[in-house]
Write a structure and sequence with these properties.
Blueprint: H1 5-30, H2 45-56, E1 63-64, E2 69-70, H3 81-84, H4 87-99, H5 103-130, H6 133-145, H7 147-150, H8 156-159, H9 180-201, H10 207-229, H11 233-253, H12 262-284, H13 288-294, E3 296-298, H14 307-324, H15 333-350, H16 352-355, E4 357-359, H17 362-367, H18 369-386, H19 394-419, H20 423-443, E5 453-456, H21 459-464, E6 472-473, H22 487-500, H23 505-514, H24 516-523, H25 541-556, H26 560-563, E7 568-574, H27 582-585, E8 588-596, E9 599-606
Parallel strand pairs: 5-6, 5-7
Antiparallel strand pairs: 1-2, 3-4, 7-9, 8-9
Helix pairs in contact: 1-5, 1-6, 1-19, 1-20, 2-4, 2-5, 5-6, 5-9, 5-18, 6-18, 6-19, 9-10, 10-11, 10-12, 11-15, 14-15, 14-18, 15-18, 23-25
Length: 610
């Protein structure tokens, strides 16, 4: 049956609406006071937005918006997580630069576009599998609306348990992994057309035309894989896991006509292999701090107790039941495709058995493996639909319409519970955007605006400033995810930030016992929670005491030279913050530059004689 693309557009529009829900809530809450900021879905988005802003400004691929250090011939910079995964941010930055809009609007639009295209790609895949536009529409909605549920995360933790509703639609954290999603699901649809449908067409008279078309589709699949490779690690490795599973399944079963598609298989393998060559080169040039942030663990222990794996195990039982009932054979191409898709969660969570390396498997659980597991379940159901006498009876239409409605309803439940977690932070960020815009105006008269440093006492504001303001910041929570600073430099900047805030050694001792931001700043991401890796070790009393001792020594030897590394150009403090600038004014003369949105911006000049 011919697909009715309007059904796919309906599903895509709903996903775009869900992706815009946090923004709509901010618009409603702020009303006429909205300053133009985007509502983030995840706190990590500030770093992604800052990198996009730098690219919009024309800064090089290897840039650090938090320190102002860019790659030049005189000051070469190593590769960072952002410079290696450059495809997605450039997808946002290039049109933003051409059409003249900033990073906030780039982030707003990217979520909606990613949601629309991802849903449409899944609609296309499920539609080609089954021939049912109704099922494909419902399946596209279910894949993403139940994604958080399939990860064991999101609203369900609060709806049924005494848990915390987070994260919101994790797959649509902008632009990672959101922008890689359409490429991943489009790759699956293209491979279905080539290796499942293409074999049937090879038996017809137009063998040459069909073969050429399959080569084109294979090349497009390689391009989609390449885009994913240079967009997000967890998505492209999941794509690679599917390719490996599909190759193994085809070689093991050798479905009818498999030799006729060796050419396409070689193009696929060769193209994907070539894509990984420059990726491997960039990865070899990475900063040492990147390993510290990514928490690579050396282990060969299996990981079999993840929600996506439970779903995948259920899908395997469905496939076995279908074969036992004589509905289909394992040697059928469509069954092999679904079987390969079902194996993906097991592969990504257990590849360390072979490689000996595990890299934050929680990211597979919430950012891609969960969606693949739901898609595999839907694809398994699609095998039965595919073999039905009629794929769109009135009864089946009613069932798929019910699934679509249930998916939409749960999508709004996810939005309601998970978005409110960040409501206050988003309104706070939008108020602070007025400060960033004012700093942007000040920068127009600066000969080296990226190397001017802002000391922002408000942690949320400091993290968010580089999205709009071109100056760098003394310290921010996401600063160390870039490559501009060594780990030691990052720690010393945090020491300096604490010192200017008037925090003494005893104050740091207190922070390390209750504040996860301080733990991340001084011990890294892997020490504040057991969620990120299997080798989590809580901070000991001895480690706290040693860090407090080092900070005390830092304060005692603080001098004009320390105060000038980096040299502060602006100080921003909230008017209701107590305005304790004692430690700042020991080294800098401050002159009020402006008052905006409840903040005071000071120009800072090193004190004479210091």
């Amino acid at each position: 049956m011919r697909l009715r693309w309007s059904f796919g557009i309906v599903a895509a529009i709903f996903l775009a609406v869900f992706c815009l829900y946090p923004q709509a809530k901010m618009w409603y809450a702020r009303g006429g006071e909205w300053n133009g900021h985007y509502a983030y879905n995840d706190i990590d988005e500030v770093a992604y937005a800052a990198y996009v802003r730098a690219l919009i400004d024309g800064r090089p691929r290897k840039n650090d918006p938090y320190t102002g250090r860019d790659h030049t011939a005189e000051t070469p910079q190593p590769e960072s997580l952002f410079s290696i995964q450059f495809a997605a941010p450039y997808t946002l930055a290039i049109p933003a630069r051409i059409f003249g809009f900033g990073a906030p609007w780039a982030m707003i639009l990217s979520g909606a576009v990613a949601g629309f295209l991802s849903a449409f790609a899944v609609f296309w895949l499920l539609g080609r599998m089954t021939g049912s536009s109704w099922f494909a529409m419902a399946g596209a909605l279910a894949t993403f609306c139940f994604g958080s549920l399939a990860a064991g995360e999101g609203a369900i933790l609060e709806v049924l348990f005494d848990g915390f509703s987070y994260p919101y639609f994790p797959g649509f954290r902008r632009y990672i992994p959101a922008m890689a999603f359409p490429a991943f699901f489009a790759m699956l649809a293209l491979l279905w057309k080539v290796f499942v449908e293409g074999a049937k067409e090879e038996t017809q008279d137009d063998r040459r035309a069909g073969g050429n078309r399959n080569l084109i589709l294979t090349a497009l699949a390689v391009l989609a894989f390449g885009y994913a490779v240079f967009s997000y690690f967890y998505v492209w490795t999941t794509a690679a896991a599917f390719l490996a599973a599909m190759a193994a399944a085809w070689l093991a079963e050798r479905p009818e006509g498999w030799r006729s598609q060796i050419r396409e298989a070689l193009v696929l393998a060769g193209g994907c292999g070539l894509v990984l060559v420059p990726y491997a080169y960039l990865l070899a040039q990475r900063a040492t701090t990147m390993d510290h942030v990514q928490l690579l663990v050396h282990t060969r222990l299996p990981d079999l107790f993840r929600f996506p794996e439970y779903i995948a195990f259920g899908v395997l039982l469905i496939l076995i039941a279908g074969m036992a009932a004589g509905k289909f054979r394992l040697g059928d191409r469509d069954v092999l495709f679904v079987f390969a898709l079902t194996l993906v969660p097991f592969i990504v969570f257990n590849q360390q058995i072979v490689t000996g390396r595990a890299l934050q498997p929680i990211h597979y659980q919430v950012f891609i493996g969960n969606y693949v597991a739901v898609l595999a379940l839907l694809a398994a159901i699609g095998l039965f639909i595919r073999r039905a006498k009629s794929v769109e009876t009135a009864r089946l239409k009613a069932v798929w319409a019910g699934l679509a409605v249930a998916s939409i309803a749960w999508g709004f439940v996810e939005c309601h519970y998970t978005v409110r977690v960040l409501d206050w932070a988003n309104e706070h960020r939008d108020k602070g955007l007025a400060v960033a815009k004012r700093l942007e105006e000040f920068a127009k008269a600066s000969p080296d605006k990226h190397r001017e440093t802002v000391l922002a006492f408000d942690g949320i504001l400091a993290d968010d400033l580089p999205t709009v303001a071109p100056q760098n910041v003394l310290w921010a929570r996401h600063q160390h995810v870039f490559a501009g600073l060594s780990w030691q430099e990052s720690k010393e900047r945090y020491y300096q930030y604490l010192y200017y805030n008037g925090v003494d050694a005893e104050g740091l001792d207190d922070l390390l016992r209750r504040d996860f931001v301080s733990i991340i700043a001084l011990f890294g991401w892997g020490r504040h929670t057991d969620r990120l890796n299997s080798e989590y070790k809580p901070i000991t009393e001895g480690e706290v005491a040693e860090e407090v001792r080092l900070y005390r020594e830092y304060i005692e030897r603080f001098d004009a030279r320390t105060a000038g590394e980096p040299k502060i150009s602006y100080v921003v403090i909230a008017d209701d913050d107590g305005n304790d600038l004692t430690n700042v004014t020991r080294w800098y003369d401050l002159s009020e530059a402006d008052r905006v949105a409840g903040y005071t911006i000071y120009r800072a000049t090193p004190r004479a004689g210091q």
